[in-house]
Amino acid sequence: MRTVALLALLAVNAIPAAGWFIEGWSAGTTLVVYWFENVAVCLFVAARIFANQRANPRRGHFAYQGPRSAGRGARASFLEGFLVTSLVFSAAHGLFLGVILLVLDQNGQDHLAGVVWHQVRIGCIGVLVVLAIEFAMDLPGLRRWSFWQIEQTANPSLGRIAVVHLTLVLGLFGAVLTDASALFGVFVVLKTLNALSTALPQWEPRTAPKWLSRVMNRLPNARPGEDFEDLWAKERADEAARRVGNEQPWVGTRNA
Predict the structure, then answer these.
(1) Comparing 115-119, 169-173, 211-215, which segment has the lowest mean pLDDT?
(2) Cα(55)–Cα(209) distance, integer angstroms
(3) Residue span of the structural domain in which 106 resides
């Protein structure tokens, strides 16, 4: 991971964590800042996709071929798909969060669910400043980014929206049910560790690990006659071909 991206990741996650552990923010305030962080991250990622698409149009931008497990078609605009997915999920999470905080506040749990808006403003401004600085430093070099770099930047953002925010909401519920605000602190730590885990390099061996092959070959196989090593090699070859296809220069119209 780039040094700038790593520092930005640390700073963005430190803001709500410091608010909760040091400044005494409520769980509601912390969750609102986390929600804003998700939205802001997605918008800055979308800006990177757009800038790279304009400067270095590749097939993946206009006819994105996603991994087989993602189930995406081969004629989807990557930017459009990313924005629709991320913003719809963010809107749904924001609505869900608002309803939960309102219900908890009405039930006398304002010490946890109450939102202090001037603290939210401070947290959101801090997050926005960090992300804006990171984007400004990335912008001059975005034309040299491969599509694979763009894809790797975008996909963790979608995963964070779908998993991390809901985990924090569950942490809020746990804190309410047990009347222990410390439980929500555990979820804040887990969220931070999960975010930092995205900085770790992916392990993508070309051949299947021997220990894993021995285990998998003992299990019932949906494709009789094929060893796990063969399936692994085929999937790696398909993935390599997919990446090469997405990197091809785009020669069609840009509104495809």
Answers:
(1) 169-173
(2) 40
(3) 3-201
